[in-house]
Design the sequence.
């Protein structure tokens, strides 16, 4: 399951599980976690067991340098869509416009952005995602919203990663075509677009 793989990747990136989890008892489809009844629980067991016992909406983690980290299901355009995963971290120096950042904020922003980019690639590859994205205070679009009118009206991620897909090049091209036009770079693991 993608949530467990992403959680594992966060732990590889230096995060530890806080024990805080948001779950729902409902099996109903939903677009946003605010649309469904949910409970905050404390959990002290294995990730695989947690996911078997509960329908997990969010997991709390902590990074020694970057603080609180949340792994959660993102909103979708339609209730029947598969929910993308979303990792949320305090923006720190990235929260300030580049021209207004102090020297300390610039250093913090660079460090956070490098970590976010490496995590973006690692989590996308580990979960076999169709695409992944990173940005500051953005809305992560689901597959159906990626190229749609709704996605055009919200603040979109500034950096995108599309893992190289050896079996479905047409899917790669479809996703790449829907992304905002900006610089494109190709690496052995996939394609990347954008910057912080």
Sequence:
């Amino acid at each position: 399951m993608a949530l467990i793989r992403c959680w594992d990747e966060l732990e590889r990136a230096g995060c530890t599980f806080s024990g805080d989890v948001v779950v729902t008892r409902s099996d109903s489809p939903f677009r946003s976690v605010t649309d469904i009844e949910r409970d905050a629980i404390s959990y002290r067991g294995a990730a695989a067991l947690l996911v078997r016992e509960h329908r997990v909406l969010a997991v709390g983690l902590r990074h020694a340098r970057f603080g609180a980290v949340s792994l959660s299901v993102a909103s979708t355009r339609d209730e029947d869509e598969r929910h993308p995963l979303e990792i949320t971290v305090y923006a720190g120096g990235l929260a300030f416009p580049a021209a207004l950042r102090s020297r300390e904020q610039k250093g913090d922003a660079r460090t956070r952005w490098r970590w976010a980019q490496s995590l973006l690639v690692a989590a996308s590859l580990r979960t076999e995602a169709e695409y992944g994205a990173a940005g500051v205070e953005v809305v992560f679009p689901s597959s159906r919203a990626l190229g749609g009118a709704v996605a055009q009206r919200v603040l979109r991620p500034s950096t995108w990663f599309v893992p190289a897909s050896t079996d479905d090049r047409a899917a790669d091209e479809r996703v790449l075509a829907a992304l905002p036009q900006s610089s494109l770079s190709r690496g052995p693991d996939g394609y990347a677009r954008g910057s912080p």
User: Anything to note?
Assistant: DSSP finds five helices and nine strands in the chain.
